[in-house]
Design goal:
CATH architecture: 2-Layer Sandwich
Low-confidence stretches: 88-92
CATH superfamily: YlxR-like
Structural class: alpha+beta
Radius of gyration: 15 Å
Strand order of the largest sheet: 4-3-5
CATH topology: Hypothetical Cytosolic Protein, Chain: A
Strand content: 15-25%
Distance between the termini: 48 Å
CATH class: Alpha Beta
């Protein structure tokens, strides 16, 4: 028996989604950051390129987590994006 889905809001687009559809960035008690695991202050982000780019550009994760977010975190999240061809010209 499954209960109601747990909803969380993307820090960038503010869309309310099931938390299993979102990426979770956690500020751990020691001040370090982790992805998808651990206990601490969390921020959620849509797994889309535009949300990730906007979050980095406008420092949305820094504000939500109240700490600095290293470029390595953004790189790890970018690596999770589904790979697509950059332009339709290559498909010809």
């Amino acid at each position: 028996m499954k209960g109601k889905p747990v909803l969380r809001r993307c820090v960038t687009c503010r869309e309310l989604l099931d938390r299993q559809q979102l990426w979770r960035v956690v500020r751990l008690q020691d001040g370090s950051l982790a992805l998808d695991a651990g206990m601490g202050r969390s921020a959620y982000l849509c797994p889309r390129q535009d949300c990730l780019s906007e979050a980095k550009r406008r420092r949305k994760l820094q504000r939500a987590l109240r700490c600095q977010v290293a470029d390595s975190i953004y790189a790890a999240l970018e690596g999770r994006l589904p790979s697509t061809s950059p332009s339709g010209a290559e498909a010809r």
